[in-house]
Amino acid sequence: MSPHKSAIIGLGAMGMGMAQSAHAAGLQTVGMDINPVAMETLAATGATIAETPAKAAAGADSLTVVVVNAAQTEAVLFGDNGAADALPEGAVVLGCATVSADTCREIAARVEERGLFYLDAPISGGAAKAFRGELTVMASGASAAFDRAKPFLDATSETVFDLGREAGQGSTMKMVNQLLAGVHIATAMEAVALGLKAGLDAQSIYDVITQAAGNSWMFGNRVPRVIAGDYQPKSAAGIFTKDLGIVLSEAERLGIDLPLATTALTRYQAAADMGLKGEDDAAVIKVYAEAAGIELPVPDA
């Protein structure tokens, strides 16, 4: 029996980690990205690369779309040289972008009408876990979609939550996660800014808080980037203007007020207005630094 052929489209930090984990696990792996440097990086591992989504999808058992938003997902699947029409009947598409539940269901319906399966499969865990094959997947879809995706999920994830048979449930859970993640990052940066303004140093703040009740996963993960003065995007600040926008749009539809998410979104919007949208989301601290005249750590010379 030939190995499972997995195609991964979108070779950013998360997609690259997933592609390399799949390749390391022995899956026949092909990746595609519009960034030639990312393609070269994956090719150097021995995995295959393809020039278009359609070429990546040809003969694949699973196609994983790890892009930023719904528009990019639709372009990969249904645009020029799109992947959906190139996949063999019975293949499974894993949609990993953070999108609204309604959008997810619309994409799933378009995929399934082509004789394919769709797994609503948002991911969490960060780039390091992606490279170690230890992601958390919040998935929903038909049982057959889970079955067909299992070799790829086994290779790339540590925990797969089965949230039901309907596409959209995974995206709804990711929305909840992103509310927390966005608020936690903004709050962590606000707390560090307060400490710096009051005369504490960033390393001491990190050392104490990570051993205290106020710690969070996001604090422990993001504050070292501030200490190092490193805002190269592992997860860009602009992602949260999108994701918290999805959160608040759904909240409005449901008739629930989310004041903390609303306030957090203003911080990311302020960062975007400062030209920081493409920097790491920890760069939200620069919003506080500019407003309060705080001197932030800089990289070592």
Tell me the helix content. 40-55%
What's the SSE pattern?
A: EHEHEHEHEHEEHEHEHHHHHH
Task: Give the total of beta strands.
Answer: 9
Helix run count: 13
Q: Can you tell me the number of structural domains?
A: 2
In CATH, the architecture of the largest domain is 3-Layer(aba) Sandwich
- Please identify the top-level CATH class of the largest domain: Alpha Beta
> Could you state the CATH homologous superfamily of the largest domain?
NAD(P)-binding Rossmann-like Domain
- Might you state the CATH topology name of the largest domain? Rossmann fold
First CA to last CA: what distance?
Answer: 54 Å
The largest sheet, given as strand count, sense and whether it forms a barrel, is: 9 strands, mixed
Strand content: 5-15%
Q: Given the helix and strand composition, which structural class is it?
A: alpha/beta
Question: Could you say which overall geometry the principal axes of the C-alpha atoms support?
Answer: globular
> pLDDT under 50 segments (min length 5)?
none
Mean of pLDDT: 97
Q: Whole-number radius of gyration? A: 20 Å
Structure characterization notes:
This protein is α/β, with parallel strands linked by helices. The protein folds into two domains: 5-166, NAD(P)-binding Rossmann-like Domain (Rossmann fold, 3-Layer(aba) Sandwich), CATH 3.40.50; 171-292, N-(1-d-carboxylethyl)-l-norvaline Dehydrogenase, domain 2 (Orthogonal Bundle). It is built from 13 helices and nine strands. Strand 8, helix 7 and strand 9 form a beta-alpha-beta unit.
